[in-house]
Amino acid sequence: MNTTATRFLYLARHGEASADEDAGELTANGRRQAELLGDRLRDVPLAAIHHGPLPRAAATARLIGDRLKEVPVRAAEAAGDYVPYVPGQAELPADAADRLLAFLAPVTPDEREQGAALARAAQERFTGPVAGDEVRHELVVTHAFLIGWLVRAALDAPPWRWLGLNPGHAALTVIRYTPGRPSAVLLFNDMAHLPAELRWTGFPPELRG
């Protein structure tokens, strides 16, 4: 008989990075954010740390891993930076549709197709209960869009609703997947491990807490 066990999925956006994010390194703030998140996770029995391929995610994962004991750190393309879904105008609230579509307008058809495929791969790899009878805890160090997408999926919200879910740098989101129960978002955008001066980086002023 096949058995499954609960998965706790920990999601973290990378630390603050330099302006040239595709090639850039973490700033001093970003490095400290990653270290503090690692300290917060010290008592969590993580089976693995997964991270996207870009330097800012890889560096954040390494700094977190340095604060933990013998947790493997692994690159995963599905944890990268991409647009997971581009909605049509009819799917969106009328008062927000034009703004959201303007934000997504630069996404090319190829990027849409690739993003959708990577989003499916991320859900297959990182979500749902796990095979066996042992509870698993995993961390994925990724980017804002994928965190929004996986939170949306956990809540069975419409596909477009990843838009507007904005995690801060090194903030913590936790989703629980238990056999026979709906998935549960236990934490979203939790910054309790960060001092006030390291919170809300990467947010426009109107969205800051």
Question: What is the topological layout?
Answer:
Layout: E1 4-5, E2 7-13, H1 28-40, E3 46-51, H2 55-66, E4 73-75, H3 97-104, H4 109-126, E5 130-131, E6 136-142, H5 144-154, E7 172-177, E8 184-190
What does this protein look like?
- It is a single chain.
- This protein is of the alpha/beta class and 209 residues long.
- It contains 5 helices and 8 strands.
- α1 (28-40) packs across α2 (55-66).
- It is globular and about 45 Å long.
- The termini are far apart.
Based on helices, strands and strand pairing, what is the structural class?
Answer: alpha/beta
How many E-type strands?
A: 8
Q: What's the gyration radius in Å?
A: 17 Å
Question: Unreliable runs, pLDDT <50, ≥5 residues?
Answer: none
Number of helices: 5
Main sheet: strand order: 4-3-6-2-7-8
* Estimated share of beta-strand residues: 15-25%
The pLDDT mean sits at 95
Query: How many strands, what sense, and barrel or not for the largest sheet?
Result: 6 strands, mixed
- How would you describe the shape? globular
Q: Bin the helical content.
A: 25-40%
Instruction: Please give the alpha-carbon distance between the first and last residues.
Output: 49 Å
- The H-and-E topology, N to C, reads as EEHEHEHHEEHEE
Can you summarize this structure?
It is built from five helices and eight strands.
Task: Considering the chains and any ligands shown, give keywords for the structure.
two-stranded antiparallel sheet, six-stranded mixed sheet, alpha/beta
